[in-house]
Fold this protein.
Amino acid sequence: MHKVINIGLIGFGNVGQELARILLEKQQGWAAKESCTFQVSAISTRSRGALVNRQGIDLKRALDDINQSGSFNIENPDYKLLTVDDLINLDFIDVVIEITTLNIINGQPAADHIKNALLNGKDVITANKGPIAFYYGDLQALAEKVGQILLFEGTVMDCTPVFNLVRETLPACAISGFRGILNSTTNYMLTEMAAGESFEAALNKAQEQGFVESDPALDLDGWDAAAKVAALMNVFFNAAITPPEIDREGITAISRDDLDKAKQAGETIKLLCEGYRSGDETYGRVKPVAIPITQPLAQIQGTSSALTIYTDLAGTFTIESYDPQIRQTAYALISDLFAIVRHSRQL
Ligand SMILES: NC(=O)c1ccc[n+]([C@@H]2O[C@H](COP(=O)([O-])OP(=O)(O)OC[C@H]3O[C@@H](n4cnc5c(N)ncnc54)[C@H](OP(=O)(O)O)[C@@H]3O)[C@@H](O)[C@H]2O)c1
């Protein structure tokens, strides 16, 4: 039977707009092949206005208006005064997608958006690390209690399978640790510095390409990486840890000289993200580390990322993502949407 999934988007920035472009491009094919339509029926933003139409918003017009004026057009018949709480309360919304800005201090208000959506009987998808890094245990317990689904594949390594890989393929395995390169900006800068650029020049080049956080300290001081380590530890180890509890050191003290010296010793410096569990003890760390050039993680260049996972039964394996773009983050939301559709068909 053909299924229409009504979606409410909280946030319509880079990720939300790319999601809209993918839906415009691919929706027809999925409708035929997968017998389902993902219909965006409400969008709420902080400052660009809101749109609601239970028959589906005209996404092309929404994108055109944002491109032309930076906001939704008040002349659009779908334009409404709609708060996030209003959106969460709309009875025709099946899935809420939370894609607001990361708050590294406490994960709010995104965590409350997710909690309220679950309490209102919505499944929830997010690419926002904050709620998973600060409140995963509580939010997952709530989702289970109210019988809804919470998915968050885009929070770490965009759409490269991390959480769904563990969920779907390692059901009987215990994960004892992980080690990876998870922050694009710092890995790009360390790659450029290893090739001879100064710290400042490498940062400028990264900023010109648009992938540095608007507050660069989030990347350079290791906060984004710490949020990802906390999210992975919460999901893999049930660690109930938060980003400030991760042992964290950024790359601001690293110079081109340090990279030159590492090279002479057959090593390179990477901002390593690690999490380990032993019994009830867990430990998470983000730190620039010199690693032998022969190790797989030393080969991860530029904005690429990688994660090695250590398990008891499936052994040790590494997944890599090559130079991910915004499309890959938006696709993570689509892959979570399909997971929800498939789950509901199995019920
Ligand atoms: N960009 C990436 O490559 C990437 C990759 C992985 C994960 N993520 C995560 O995905 C999320 C979205 O990223 P993005 O790049 O799309 O961010 P963005 O361009 O800054 O867009 C954020 C959107 O959220 C809205 N918003 C912020 N606070 C809000 C609030 N309190 N209530 C309602 N709307 C609110 C903003 O409204 P206004 O438009 O009015 O400002 C904007 O539309 C972030 O959590 C980010 O960390 C992003």
Q: What stands out?
A: The pocket of NAP is lined by residues 10-16, 44-48, 84, 99-102, 109, 127-129, 154, 158, 326, 329 (CB under 6 Å). The two ends are 14 Å apart (CA to CA).
